[in-house]
Amino acid sequence: MDTAVNEAADLAVIDEPGVALDLDQAVIIALGCNDKGVWASCTEALEAALARFRSEGIDVVARSSWWRSQAWPDPTDPPFLNGVVIVRTAHDPHALMQTLGRIEDAFGRQRSTRNAPRTLDLDLIAYGREQGDCAGLILPHPRAAERLFVMGPLAEIAPEWVHPAGGAAAQLMKDAVVGSDARPLV
């Protein structure tokens, strides 16, 4: 897996060449899809979501490759395609969550039953070093560190990012237990 992460690190897209990311200020969003909806594929749906970010005041600074994994917790659901981006935005955490929800809605996201297949799932993983219950928004995302389909893609673009509760992305990826079958698309 380390080889895949090292090779995939070249996939990161940095909008300011030569300027290092300040990982203490990183705003991290995870994307997922296992219902292509009106798009030809989940890849196309996720790419369309990323294209929408800029018009919503969210600039992608770095992005991972797409990772495939079985659906969780029900592996009989369609498999997921996931990825992670680091963004810059003027939105505060609550406004960013509202914007992400609006994008999900525009992409046909239905909130029927918990963990049901979805056309688009956007999760705010971290907002800088914000930690704890921020007026009903828990940061960092309370289950991100245990999910390989989040920590694997994050380790591609920011292996040294440290979870506020401890542990670098590269190590958390190795320790993740949920989605242990997750692998980058080749």
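Second entry:
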Amino acid sequence: MPAKTKKSGVKLRLDTLTPQDYQELSKPYVPSRPVFKNCMRAFISGGLICVIGQGIQEAFMAIFDMSSKEAASPTVAILILLSVILTSFGVYDKLAQWCGAGSAVPVTGFANSMCSAALEHRAEGLVLGVGGNMFKLAGSVIVFGVVAAFIVGVVYAVMGWGGAN
């Protein structure tokens, strides 16, 4: 099916259009990306999430007299809870639009991806909707983590590293 281009008025056959031709034709219409601004936003927002996490951990250490190792788990749980609450109210998605990659700090970004999928499919029911679709995006991450941990564990066992001494 022929189509006219704006510049030359020449008819172009879309079924014979190569990817290189398409890139050349679409280049004037692609908006420029503010890479430096996006990097700074990601750096600042990701750093701010980590500072909040560090503040929560310091609070657990000061208030409950925990070591840093003991305070790590409840800190992660609080960050996950905050991420899920903000996602449920639609705040996290708006923050993520501004923050870009900075909002993908592993714990909060992972919680957001699971909560978003659960909210999106809640009308289909708890089992088939929420349970069946919650892991669509996060499932590959979970599988990779389990497989990588297994492989590292096998390597450690074979090499004799770690374990009880």
